[in-house]
Amino acid sequence: MSLRYQTIVLLLSLIPGLGQACGWWGDGESSSAVSTMSVTASGQVVATEIDPMTDPELMIHLGDSFRTGSGPARDHNLARHWYRLAAERGHPGGQYNLAQMYELGLGVRRDTIEAAFWYRRAAEQGEVHSQHHLAAMYRDGRGVSRDPQLSLAWFEAAARQGHGEVFPELAMAYQQGQGVNTDLRRAYLWWWLAAESGDPEAIRQVAGLRQQMTVLVTGQVEAEGRALRAGWRRVDEVPGS
Hints:
Blueprint: H1 3-13, E1 37-39, E2 45-47, H2 56-68, H3 76-88, H4 92-104, H5 112-123, H6 128-140, H7 148-159, H8 167-176, H9 184-196, H10 200-210, H11 215-230
Antiparallel strand pairs: 1-2
Helix pairs in contact: 2-3, 3-4, 4-5, 5-6, 6-7, 7-8, 8-9, 9-10, 9-11
């Protein structure tokens, strides 16, 4: 076993919860990395013949360990290094995490242009938290030129995956005609879905819109909302997303 390989195995053995989803700021990091590892009865992680340098998910676990200091000492530069290795191999979780490093200035000078670049790479692969962040950047003109229409498109992409934090943003855009023609039907859809989770402002907005729409229309829209909701996979809401 090479020295580099032994070092990586040692670091991996120090990372608690390796078999669980990493769940930093996004859910792009799945737990399939565990398929390259075995665990002894005492909980010690043992590498298989698969070289961790070829597995982007193990790179992300290493990045997390350095970012949090949960295994080796905290080192944002090394965290960014491992996230970049995963990102450059096309892993959407690595791309999202690297974008966060640049947006927040962790281990690197803050760079919203670079953050937007990596958010876009992940968003185009369907990574929902990246879609949310990219939408906000187009809305605010951070790292990209302000573009209400692109902002709305990315907010809707995240919303249609069930990312509840963007429902009110999307509802307000349709209600006020931000980046799109005013559409009370679409506004009602997203307010209603937000209200279903108990959002007080959404509940108030739904009540107001019901007074402007027929029972038939609201019933049709709510049926559309239930159909959307039935098709969603679970999206973990996490701090900073």
